[in-house]
Amino acid sequence: MAKRGKGYQESLKLIDKDALYTPSEAMDLVLKTAKAKFDETVELSVRLGVDPRHADQQVRGTVVLPNGTGKTVRALVFAKGDKAKEAEAAGADYVGAEEYIEKIQKENWFEFDVVVATPDMMGLVGRLGRVLGPKGLMPNPKSGTVTFDVTKAISEIKAGKVEYRVDKTAIVHVPIGKKSFGNEKLAQNYVALMEALIKAKPAAAKGQYLKSVSLSSTMGPGVKINPAKVVE
């Protein structure tokens, strides 16, 4: 394991590794221990009582964080005709069809963070499955990125929509903003995401659903939240 820096070691002294904090206490500690010289991202990690190997225990969805993510999101939209014009008007960064398929395939171009496609374009976009899929960029109806309502899709993405998805270890990792947001805005984003996760509990999930919950900054240690008190 790589040796942690002096700042990290100092931060660890502020945290009781055996304690389960309230969300507000945890947020305070995360902000105190975010000591890097850049604006660190604050991330929420939740281990769920589900078995991701079973289709009926998948946890996946989207939520628009009330205060955004602090990141400028570049959107590529695959659309033609009026829908292409609509996407441009909505503020999409790139709009097109075959030309962007070719650009990605031949130039290994990935100057975008999210891909939206109208349903009639998915036959074309499917050619990119092997390159977009592993990067988590493939449009999907469940995440609202395969839709004819491109105006809504783009406006939500630009407003701070994030996707949550349980990984194969049954953990969900989602950024909820930047250190510069301050306690109040981060807390609002945290509540929005936790409520969405709780609402997304699969009917097939048995026993304790929220196994462990923690907050951390990019360079700081994790701070555990009491799973029984995730929303104050």
From TrEMBL:
CDD domains: Ribosomal_L1
Record-linked SUPFAM superfamilies: Ribosomal protein L1 (SSF56808)
Residues that span the membrane, as ranges: none
Keyword Transmembrane helix: no
Keyword Ribosomal protein: yes
UniProt KW keywords: Repressor, Ribonucleoprotein, Ribosomal protein, RNA-binding, rRNA-binding, Translation regulation, tRNA-binding
Cellular component, GO annotation: ribosome
Gene3D superfamilies, alphabetized: 3.30.190.20, 3.40.50.790
Superkingdom of the organism of origin: Bacteria
InterPro entries the UniProt entry points to: Ribosom_uL1_bac-type, Ribosomal_uL1, Ribosomal_uL1-like, Ribosomal_uL1/biogenesis, Ribosomal_uL1_3-a/b-sand, Ribosomal_uL1_CS
Self-association and partners: Part of the 50S ribosomal subunit.
Family, per entry: Belongs to the universal ribosomal protein uL1 family.
Role description: Protein L1 is also a translational repressor protein, it controls the translation of the L11 operon by binding to its mRNA.
The protein's name: Large ribosomal subunit protein uL1
Organism for this UniProt entry: Clostridium brassicae
Designated gene of the protein: rplA
